[in-house]
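Thread: Modeling a multi-component assembly for a lab meeting

Hi all, long-time lurker, first post. My supervisor asked me to bring a structural picture of a complex we are working on to next week's group meeting, and I have zero experience with this. I have the sequence lines for every component (874 residues in total). Could someone generate the structure of the whole assembly? Inputs are pasted exactly as I received them:
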Amino acid sequence: MLNNTVSAATSAQAPLVKRTGHGWRLGRLNLELRQHMSPWLQALILACALVVGLGISAALLIAAGVKPSALFDEFIVENFSDPENLHSILFQAAPLIFVGVSAALAFRVRFWNLGIEGQMIWGGIGATAVSFYDIGPAATRIPLMMLFAALAGMAWIIVPLWLRVRWRVNEIIVTLLLNYVAFNFLLHLLYGAWLDPKDNFPHSPQFRAFERLPELGFGVSSALVLALIFTALSGWLVMFTRFGFYTKFVHDNDRMALAVGVPIGLVTLVSALLSGALSALAGFVIAAAQEGRLTQSYFEGYGFSGILIAFLARNNPIAAMVVAILVAVLFVSGRSLQVFYQIPFAMVQLIQAIIVISVAASEFLMRHRVHWVR
Amino acid sequence: MVAALKLVGVRKSFDGFVALDDAEFEARAGEVHALLGENGAGKSSLMNVAAGLYTPEAGRIFVNGEEVVLSGPRDATACRIGMVHQEFKLVRPFTVVENVLLANWRGRFAPGVREIERQIEKQAAELGFEIDPGSRIDELSIAERQRVEIIKVLLAGARILILDEPTAVLTDEEAVRLLTTVRALAAGGAAVVLVTHKLGEVTAFTDRVTVMRNGRAVALLDSRATDAAELTRLAVGTAVASPRRASSPPGEPRITVKSLQAARADGHVTVNDVSFYVRAGEIYGIAGVGGNGQTELVEALTGVRGPLAGSIEIEGAGNATGASPERLRDLGIACIPADRFGYGIAGGLSVVDNFCVGHINEGTYGSWLRTNGAAMREATAEAVGEFDVQGVRALRQRAALLSGGNAQKLIIAREFSRNPKVIVAHSPSRGLDVRACAAVHERLLKARAGGAAILLISDDLDEVLNLSDRIGVMTRGRIAAEFEAPADRQAVGRVMVHHA
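Re: Modeling a multi-component assembly
Sure thing. I ran the full set together rather than chain by chain. Output:
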């Protein structure tokens, strides 16, 4: 048992007050690696981090001119008492769930997919192509649009995937930069071949009724149901299948995984393709449920939100769904703050960033034990 | 005589585990003082306290009779205490002189690089070796890096020099050279603490020895008045019998390697025309100084790295050259890698995961669509018991928390429970204490008795000599000579050194 402590423990020290000429000091912080931590304490630290993050965010909003009393109103009362608002949250949640699960799947195998927005755009293009060229009968239209969207998203992620596997090109840069290529191609279509002839605005012609995801009543869109189905499937995939078991090894120690016979190439390939497909479905949902046509509304922070959701959910699809709904609250509240207080939407991203930083910082406390010496 | 360094009643725990419990230690100026004990006995922890890295919960530290409080390595340096750690604390892309400057506690750079270079050369000459102050650390060999570490602490003014397992990474020859240097330093008036678990070093090169067990100092002896048996008894508690190799006729060749060539990641060819075979029920040992192509040979045999040329044939499967690790494992190859926590264990994952990953593709733990967690836990619990993996408080605990010896046992449990045909064991006892080492050797011999063909690649010559039926000596990527057991240690050693 002693072996454990010696090999796993390191100690680092930060003298708070250095010894001065007079020889006095306050003491210092002593840091040690934790061996083990109870889930309760972990949850407590995480909760504290969230409280700190939300506190800072609230302070920022107040500084920007929101009354403290209105804060509670805007975020809690309005969102959960008003069915209209609840509806828009659930509506907003669907694409966020897709991008969150997408990022989670890619990050599980350390494929840093920053190209979520590019894949979303291609998902939108793939789905719209089915509508635009009138492919297949009306009954199979929606499934066909989904299929084309997913295929387009997968095709778009193949480039960085191949570059990484074959030439070890960093996928972070490739996926990120390809977003701009995708966006410009989108503009090329919207200002060119797919320009709506009715109003000459740069968006595609409106989808027909059978090409749009229907409302299911009770304020629930079928987009949300689709998102939940894909979340459940992804959750099963990572938690219960052999594939999911392998992803843990690729994430933790890929050299070891290779040596013990984990097919890391295949696992990475499948995870990345699924990530591309799910991002693309987020794009499909925005086109087929929210906008009803292909528009330019893709660079609204979905990529960053996806990363944030996967991070906060520790790459677990089910947890990603929960976090995505909370982020949807933030999105919707952010829009109303924009309207009523003229606070820029960038504030939403700022709040997201603050929460990520506080949670990331709390990991330090989960890994280390800190105590005062003398 | 006042002790140069004295530690009294030191207590230190890590997250509930008591590493040091009322530990005592003293070293005098002018002596080489051995600190002996098994892995985890608390040797390194105690010395880290002396070097100001760990803050003890209780205890006092005296330097030359005066009580000091060390609130960091800087304070220790000011007290003229210097420690050379097992993992060298050098910045690899920096040059020797830059590393020495970085550790310069006086913070004076005024004398300039030239002056420091001169001092390094002077110090090196005094110690009896040469070093180019301008060379980058990553261009140096392990032994040279160690010399840089020693020069670094000496130039910082250390008169109390702590060396943590300095010979673990050295060849026999290099070790003797280092220990001779160390004796010269003590003769010059320094107090040298040699942390070790090698008994031979204690009796041959030190003046006094403190033996530690379970976080306490259990004995302080005159090194010349003791012997290996007494030291073993003190360090281990009970004597450990080394396992015996029973004689049995070997079977047919299980693995045949012909003219194998393999390269490092940088393209440098390090395995050049290696040919050998290993029969069922035999251990074929490959001796040799580390870095002569052993790692690449293991990588080629386990499929991690494709060979450049040559062939690998496995009995019953034919030519398996260039097959993937998955395929080779299916054909019955098992591997104990040298870098245990790098290639053997995924430290962040549970004991169960680490055990089951080796055979999950056989379908024993449910279908690919639904893995059976209960079956996995059950099989792991059974294997943990059978292979005596200790320190498993819960099956879902992270494998990184296991000690080296227990991590190795877990790897062996995973690899051997598949009844492999061929076992590739690379330095399987590196860094393990006497008891864990004996357990690993026993497992290898058991597998041999069970009819497995075992390839044992090790820098530890004694390990190879004791276990192997036949021995090949690897130097510069070739098998330079082969010996039948019992081989003459001197003869094998000569080939190792002369062809290098």
